[in-house]
Amino acid sequence: MSAMRPFPAVPLLAALLAPALARAAAPVYVHMNGGNYFLEPVVAVRPGQPVVFVNQDTGAHTIAGYNPLTGALSRRFEATLAGTKGPGHKLATYTVSFAKAGFKPYLCTVHARLASTFGGAVQPVKRAGTHGFKGPMAGLIVVTTDPALLADNPPTAAEKIVPGFFGG
Ligand SMILES: [Cu+2]
């Protein structure tokens, strides 16, 4: 009967948990370029896990969180990301995280706008005159602890910079 018995297990437990904790802390990336869309329009993160928006476009984009039931824009989840001169040059990024599980929709207000739907609700639509891909420049962050959702992110969400994705 040694009172010291449990202690050797503590470093072992820490060693076992370290890779999982590192994974949990690794950011999830969302990229934009001259196609005026978000390359990963839906991503899942754990509460507290950072999402990093990376602008690989020569032009600027905004990130504007909104409430889809009211159309109210978020004051906490919003940023403007300047353009870049291209590969090897400075890239504007914006990091955000959320403490609680939930849906966090957002749009780029330069290339999309919120349109009324039913009873005060809104949805993003493409802004007139915006070139690039056909859909509105908008996305959704799912904050969750569900391992299936967390494992469902597109492969580029693990890369800070996507080679070959530069352009404006
Ligand atoms: Cu934009």
Topology overview:
Layout: H1 9-25, E1 28-32, E2 42-45, E3 51-55, E4 61-66, E5 73-81, E6 93-96, E7 102-107, E8 112-116, E9 122-126, E10 138-143, H2 147-150
Parallel strand pairs: 1-3, 2-10
Antiparallel strand pairs: 3-6, 4-5, 4-7, 7-10, 8-9
Residues 36, 61, 108, 110-111, 137 line the site of copper (II) ion.
How would you characterize this protein structure?
Helices cover 12% and strands 33% of the residues. It has two helices and ten strands. The protein has helices at 9-25, 147-150; strands at 28-32, 42-45, 51-55, 61-66, 73-81, 93-96, 102-107, 112-116, 122-126, 138-143. The mean pLDDT is 91. Copper (II) ion is lined by residues 36, 61, 108, 110-111, 137.
What does the radius of gyration come to? 19 Å
Task: List low-pLDDT spans.
Answer: none
In the CATH classification, which architecture applies? Sandwich
Full CATH superfamily name: Cupredoxins -  blue copper proteins
The secondary structure category is: mainly beta
Main CATH class: Mainly Beta
Question: Number of DSSP helices?
Answer: 2
**Widest sheet: strand ordering:** 2-10-7-4-5
The main sheet comes to: 5 strands, mixed
Mean pLDDT: 91
Order of helices and strands: HEEEEEEEEEEH
Q: Bound compounds, please? A: copper (II) ion
The total number of structural domains is 1
Report the count of strand segments: 10
Q: What is the CATH T-level topology?
A: Immunoglobulin-like
Name the overall outline. Answer: globular
Helix content: 10-25%
Strand content: 25-35%
Distance between the ends? 69 Å
